[in-house]
Design goal:
It comes from Aestuariibaculum marinum. This protein has 189 residues and is an alpha/beta fold. It contains seven helices and five strands; from the N terminus they run βαβααβααβαβα. The protein is 49% helix and 12% strand. It has a five-stranded parallel sheet with strand order 2-3-1-4-5, sandwiched between helices. Helix 1 packs across helix 7, helix 4 runs antiparallel to helix 5 and helix 4 packs across helix 6.
């Protein structure tokens, strides 16, 4: 069962968009994939939880986190096989861990925690809260943006993950991300 949460070896560079809800991660993931003529790994939790909301009118519960993590890493592993240079990840298991701890009084399933810390990426892009919050069926923390941003920032620092803070307009964020990805690609070649 634990193998279901493990990253498969890959020679591509992996970058993760990381941060609170409604900070532009999906938009930027799509932009970066287009820019590099690559693919991006969508956030599995959005589809999973939207289906749950549509079918049951229920929100995320602690028992949903392992299926979400399993679905996310499965999708990432499948898509990593299809690229040579770069894979853009809209999220990762560390993000799921941060949400678990924020929503469930500091609790994180030990399996999720283990793989959130073991799986590795070349670079994280921490998305700032300097863009307007947009409501949808799943977003629910418009007044907790600063605290959530701090939780994401602290997770990167405490786990010694390489990261770059993205702020400003969509254009500024894209330019900053491209500049840092280009450096990684240059080192790889």
């Amino acid at each position: 069962m634990e193998e279901d949460f493990k990253q498969q070896p890959s020679s591509c560079i992996k970058v993760v968009l990381f941060g609170p809800e409604s900070t532009g991660k999906t938009t930027l993931s799509r932009q970066l994939a287009r820019h590099y003529n690559s693919i991006w790994v969508p956030e599995y939790a959005r589809e999973y939880l939207q289906d749950k909301w549509n079918n049951e009118r229920k929100t995320c519960e602690p028992g949903d986190l392992l299926p979400i993590a399993k679905g996310q890493i499965k999708l990432e592993n499948e898509l990593a096989k299809k690229v040579d240079d770069i894979l853009i990840c809209d999220t990762d298991l560390l993000e799921t861990k941060v949400y678990s701890e924020a929503y469930y009084l500091g609790h994180c399933d030990p399996i999720l925690e283990k793989y959130a810390l073991e799986n590795t990426y070349n670079l994280y892009f921490l998305t700032n809260i300097d863009i307007p919050w947009e409501a949808d069926d799943l977003r629910d923390k418009p007044n907790d943006r600063e605290a959530m941003f701090e939780a994401f920032h602290n997770a990167l620092v405490e786990n010694e993950r390489p990261f770059v803070l993205l702020r400003g307009s969509k254009k500024e964020r894209l330019e900053t991300a491209v500049r840092h990805i280009d450096k990684l690609l240059k080192k790889k070649s």
